[in-house]
Design brief:
about 450 residues; coiled coil; about 80% helix; cytoplasm; single chain; DRC10; Dynein regulatory complex protein 10; cytoskeleton; mainly alpha
């Protein structure tokens, strides 16, 4: 909750209401800060040294003069009186302070010692019953000690209020003050200022504040709805973009696979054609070499025979020349056939080369398409990065708006708790009025 609940931790079923002034105003000096902690009115009082408080609380006239309503002036007067008494209770020294016996009278010294003794006793009983159920934790002895503490505290406060000299001596001691007491005094000052602000606020101002608060709440709700809608749109866009990216990645994967297959097929085809062409060429060359060698040997033999025949028989020269012509014609035919076969193989090789160049062009086209797809993928990733930055900025804006809404809610909860606290004080003031006579009457305006 707020600082109100932190400094007002008195158990609801406790028979000992907070120690206050003679009029019964609550000053939560029983608040505990943890397990085994001493109540604010007992234990060691050396935890926090407080500076010398002002000699007097600011005059009620400084606040009442700005309030035109008599009832409001009375409420402020009661709050100022309660604050003055709370300060006096917080200034009460420990019974172990040796200066008390020399500064105060024996009666006051005995009253303070009795108060500390009762506080220690109440703390002991409270520690023994801390783990019991709420109904069983309050014993008759604790109720009796609570009544005694209230009685002694009221007597001391009444004495110091009626004797300014004794109050000055009390301030002169500069006794240490528990953090819970200092916190309660600060809280009481804040409550006084809030009450003053509320009493000085007109109905029109209050209505304007409520209207403004309603507008702020409506804006916050609209902002929350817008944020939810934007989140849904963002999630939808992310899903669509993810599906699109997955599709394109699948296309890229298929194209890469096809490209690898085409490369592999082209390499295999090229190797196979080269091997086949080389094998065929080697075979033809070997055949032609063998044929050429055979023809050359035959030609040599024929020439030898021709020479022998020319020498042996001149008559057969014409016949031999015809035979020579015939053989040379056959050789020329074989050479012509060789040239034709070579031209055919060259044409076949050119066709294979053309096919290879065509497939290479297709490969270049696929490579260019792959580069275009890669650029498009990079553009998509850049857009995603921009969208992510925008999303982070929207989240920061949403966090700032949520923080502002939480602060407004915290302020409203604090105001509601302080209003309930004010009602509780009004109820305790009414009970004090029954026991204290004239001082209790000052609580009637507060109830209204």
């Amino acid at each position: 909750m707020t600082a109100v609940s932190a400094s007002y931790q008195l158990r609801k079923d406790s028979p000992l209401p907070p120690i206050g002034s003679a009029s019964g105003n609550a000053t939560d000096v029983y608040s505990r800060t943890g397990t085994g902690a001493r109540p604010a009115y007992g234990g060691s009082r050396t935890t926090t040294a407080h500076s010398d408080p002002p000699d007097a609380v600011p005059d009620t006239a400084s606040f009442s003069s700005k309030l035109t309503n008599i009832e409001a002036q009375r409420v402020m007067s009661v709050l100022m009186d309660m604050q003055r008494k709370v300060q006096l209770v917080g200034l009460l020294p420990d019974s172990m302070d040796r200066r008390m016996s020399t500064i105060f009278s024996a009666e006051i010294f005995a009253a303070i010692a009795e108060l500390r003794h009762l506080e220690d006793r109440y703390e002991t009983l409270l520690g023994e019953n801390i783990n019991k159920p709420s109904r069983d934790s309050i014993t008759p002895e604790m109720r009796d000690i609570g009544r005694q503490i209230r009685s002694v505290t009221r007597s001391l406060v009444r004495h110091f209020l009626q004797n300014p000299t004794a109050a000055s001596k009390l301030r002169y001691l500069k006794s240490t003050k528990l953090p819970s007491v200092a916190q309660f005094e600060q809280l009481l000052q804040e409550v006084k200022m809030l009450v003053y602000e509320r009493l000085g606020t007109t109905v029109e101002d209050e209505k304007a504040k409520l209207d403004q608060l309603s507008i702020i709440i409506a804006k916050e709700q609209k902002t929350s709805n817008d944020v939810a809608s934007l989140r849904e749109e963002l999630d939808k866009a992310k899903k669509e973009r993810t599906v699109e990216i997955n599709k394109r990645n699948e296309v890229i994967r298929r194209l890469k696979e096809e490209l690898r297959n085409i490369k592999k097929q082209a390499e295999e085809t090229t190797k196979r054609l080269e091997a086949r062409s080389k094998q065929k060429e080697d075979s033809d060359v070997q055949q032609f070499r063998d044929k050429e060698l055979s023809l050359k040997e035959e030609t040599a033999a024929l020439r030898t025979e021709l020479h022998e025949l020319m020498k042996a028989n001149g008559e057969k020269e014409a016949q031999l020349r015809k035979r020579k012509f015939k053989i040379e014609s056959e050789v020329e035919n074989w050479i012509h056939k060789y040239d034709q076969d070579m031209d055919e193989k060259q044409t076949e090789l050119e066709d294979i080369t053309a096919i290879y160049m065509e497939e290479k062009a297709q490969l270049d086209e696929l490579s260019a398409r792959h580069a275009d797809l890669k650029k498009e993928y990079e553009a998509i990733m850049a857009e995603r990065k921009i969208e992510e930055e925008k999303r982070m900025e929207r989240e920061k804006q949403l966090k700032r708006q949520a923080t502002a809404a939480v602060r407004i809610q915290a302020w409203f909860k604090g105001w509601r708790v302080r209003r309930d606290l004010k009602k509780q004080r009004s109820g305790s003031g009414k009970k004090g009025a029954k026991g204290k006579g004239g001082k209790g009457k000052a609580k009637t305006p507060k109830k209204k």
